[in-house]
Amino acid sequence: EAGVAQSPRYKIIEKRQSVAFWCNPISGHATLYWYQQILGQGPKLLIQFQNNGVVDDSQLPKDRFSAERLKGVDSTLKIQPAKLEDSAVYLCASRLTGSSYEQYFGPGTRLTVT
Amino acid sequence: DAKTTQPTSMDCAEGRAANLPCNHSTISGNEYVYWYRQIHSQGPQYIIHGLKNNETNEMASLIITEDRKSSTLILPHATLRDTAVYYCIVRGTASKLTFGTGTRLQVTL
Prior knowledge:
The complex is a heterodimer.
Chain A: E1 5-7, E2 10-13, E3 19-24, E4 31-37, E5 44-50, E6 53-56, E7 65-68, E8 75-79, E9 88-95, E10 104-105, E11 109-113
Parallel strand pairs in A: 2-11
Antiparallel strand pairs in A: 1-3, 3-8, 4-5, 4-9, 5-6, 7-8, 9-10, 9-11
Chain B: E1 9-13, E2 18-23, E3 32-38, E4 45-50, E5 55-56, E6 61-64, E7 70-75, E8 84-91, E9 103-108
Parallel strand pairs in B: 1-9
Antiparallel strand pairs in B: 2-7, 3-4, 3-8, 5-6, 6-7, 8-9
């Protein structure tokens, strides 16, 4: 079974530029999550999708961050404009809806904002 | 969701059992205890979860105290590849996971 795919793996941008990350979840997983992990901290949930609908985006900085999952499969997370404090690893995870709450994580995208 | 407290770091000799404690004294009756680990430069990986009873799978065992206020993750024969940050998470009715800073386990020769 293929895992969660993310791209790019690494990205370096200057502050005030825009950046987008892509995630392809495990086939059949209806729930998709985006996390932000700052160095030395645990992952922090940014947004949760159920199919193509948003379930929880309470911790998403909506003035600069946006995410979509148009067809209920792939998802993109965008930052516009980026700030220095956005430097982090952005993790995507997916889950098969049902009784199990096991989340499967991708390898993440490491973003450096200079 | 209830907060968890874990030691910042632990060491374990290869081949020995690694016992990772977690305190969750404010856990409520319908909250599960989950354990994930994160190996360097990888995404977190699910290990095990439980509600009341002790659980065991091919990776680890989870021991939950009778009052459910604490738990211990046991890696029975730690190897160098088990070096990672281990997160203990209490999850309520929502499906989201709230990660703390975890325990950094270093397995040594």
